[in-house]
């Protein structure tokens, strides 16, 4: 897709300068319509996830945490609570990540929406005067900046140790927040620099059942708000915090990759590469679940299955927790496991949150243990442009039934809207759900961003 936004060259500039130039110049009036609509879809998907996650343990925990602090201008989604902007961003980032159904940018291995939108909503509430067009333009900036940094920084080895969303999410969200508040080029560079200093989030959680994964997005959103407000107050951060001799990329021995950080380098907006998950689980289980569902619909009886074979690619198999056959202490480990998710789909015949409500089903655990993962050369070759999977069940009589998918089939925009309306109706009522969706739609007509939190922030 051709861009109408000015491209930023890597020549004679550092990464933060290139990112800041893009952020400052971003103009909603010059963004393609499909980019604006994708941003609205991403915001809608985020709100649905945040509302549905309120009742989960980590949703209750982060809301309780936010309530400890002083009252403030910023709303916590679905809580009837207003707190300071950093605390609201922390709570709303965690809520948005609570289902593990957040939007996905595959090439950077990041969930950008659960950092970008909480940051912007908190800052919009803080200022009380965020125009809808500025809000959407800022959202596009956040996705572009976070994705370009993540693309350049991460490969399968690094992503297996350091959480991409926690590492680059704050950088994208800080650029977005700077654009929303209309910060100068120098202030935007400072905000990006402060956010680079906040990179963090380790991937030990899948191995021991830790729930810090949900809070990674919250930490990043809170750090982004802090970075923006520090820069607005005149604080100075190293312009080379990303690509300098001791910057973020140098810390991971990837300084030579930083020149690739160029917004719109290929003339395409990164937000258009983001997809909406069908399953409330890890990115890498999505296509296997869809293939398994097709097998399940063939009429196979799980008690007749002796073995399950899943063809995938290196990044999926090596990501923490994805190659795990159980047993499972909690739903998070199950949501990360390819073996569990495929087995649960075969047993239950659906791809849904209900697959993870009970993680000790004897039949699911039997099939999970009987599931073997392998690298398929074709899927390996085309990743990350496509995420293929093949699921083959070997029956006890030796016969086989299989399904091969070249890529994930994501939820479309209408599906996101339908899913939101169902969730928001359960959280509030049908009329309120329609009002919130109308407020999101109104952003492109310069509606007020604070109207969204006024409506969605109720208990």
Write up this protein:
The chain starts with 14 loop residues before the first helix and ends with a helix. The chain has helices at residues 15-25, 33-52, 57-68, 85-97, 113-127, 132-153, 156-159, 164-181, 185-196, 205-208, 212-232, 248-251, 286-296, 314-318, 331-336, 338-348, 362-369, 377-382, 413-427, 430-442, 450-456; strands at 71-76, 81-83, 305-312, 371-375, 389-395, 400-405. Residues 1-6 have low confidence and may be disordered. It is an alpha+beta fold. It has a four-stranded mixed sheet. It has a two-stranded antiparallel ribbon with strand order 1-2.
In short:
With 459 residues, the chain is an alpha+beta fold.
Secondary structure layout:
Elements: H1 15-25, H2 33-52, H3 57-68, E1 71-76, E2 81-83, H4 85-97, H5 113-127, H6 132-153, H7 156-159, H8 164-181, H9 185-196, H10 205-208, H11 212-232, H12 248-251, H13 286-296, E3 305-312, H14 314-318, H15 331-336, H16 338-348, H17 362-369, E4 371-375, H18 377-382, E5 389-395, E6 400-405, H19 413-427, H20 430-442, H21 450-456
Parallel strand pairs: 3-4
Antiparallel strand pairs: 1-2, 3-5, 5-6
Helix pairs in contact: 1-8, 1-9, 2-4, 2-6, 2-19, 3-4, 4-5, 4-11, 5-6, 5-8, 5-11, 6-8, 8-9, 8-11, 9-11, 13-16, 16-17, 19-20, 20-21
């Amino acid at each position: 897709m051709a861009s109408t936004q000015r491209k930023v060259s890597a020549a004679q500039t550092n990464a933060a300068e290139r990112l800041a130039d893009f952020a400052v110049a971003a103009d909603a009036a010059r963004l393609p319509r499909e980019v604006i609509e994708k941003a609205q879809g991403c915001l809608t998907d985020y709100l649905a996830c945040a509302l549905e996650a309120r009742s989960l343990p980590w949703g209750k925990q982060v809301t309780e945490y936010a309530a400890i602090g002083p009252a403030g201008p910023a709303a916590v989604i679905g809580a009837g609570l207003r707190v300071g902007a950093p605390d609201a961003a922390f709570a709303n980032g965690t809520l948005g990540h609570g289902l593990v159904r957040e939007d996905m940018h595959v090439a950077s291995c990041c969930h950008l929406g659960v950092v970008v939108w909480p940051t912007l909503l908190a800052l919009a509430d803080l200022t009380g005067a965020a125009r809808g067009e500025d809000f959407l333009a800022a959202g596009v900036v956040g996705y572009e900046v976070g994705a370009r940094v993540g693309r350049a920084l991460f490969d399968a080895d690094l992503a297996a140790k350091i959480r991409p969303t926690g590492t680059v999410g704050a950088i994208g969200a800080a650029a977005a927040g700077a654009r929303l508040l209309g910060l100068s080029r120098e202030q935007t560079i400072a905000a990006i620099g402060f956010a680079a200093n906040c990179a963090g989030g380790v991937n030990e959680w899948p191995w021991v059942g830790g729930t810090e994964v949900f809070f990674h997005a919250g930490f990043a959103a809170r750090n982004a708000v802090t970075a923006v407000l520090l820069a607005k107050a005149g604080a100075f951060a190293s312009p080379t915090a990303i690509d300098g001799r001791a910057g973020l990329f140098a810390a991971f021995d990837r300084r030579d990759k930083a020149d690739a950080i160029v917004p719109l380098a290929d003339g395409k907006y990164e937000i258009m590469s983001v997809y909406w998950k069908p399953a409330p689980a890890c990115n890498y289980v999505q296509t296997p679940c869809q293939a398994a569902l097709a097998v399940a619909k063939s009429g196979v009886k799980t008690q007749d299955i002796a073995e399950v074979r899943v063809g995938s690619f290196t990044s999926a198999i090596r990501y923490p927790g994805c190659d795990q056959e159980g047993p499972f202490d909690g739903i998070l480990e199950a949501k990360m496991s390819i073996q569990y998710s495929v087995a649960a789909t075969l047993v239950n015949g659906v791809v849904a949150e209900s697959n993870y409500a009970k993680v000790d089903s004897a039949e699911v655990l039997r099939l999970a243990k009987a599931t073997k993962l392998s690298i398929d050369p074709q899927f390996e070759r085309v990743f990350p442009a496509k995420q293929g999977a093949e699921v083959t069940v070997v029956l006890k009589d030796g016969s086989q039934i299989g399904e091969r998918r070249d890529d994930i089939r994501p939820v479309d925009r209408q599906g996101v809207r339908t899913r939101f309306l169902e969730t928001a109706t359960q959280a509030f009522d049908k009329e309120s759900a329609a009002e919130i969706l109308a407020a999101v739609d109104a952003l492109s007509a310069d509606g007020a961003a604070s109207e969204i939190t006024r409506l969605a922030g109720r208990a």
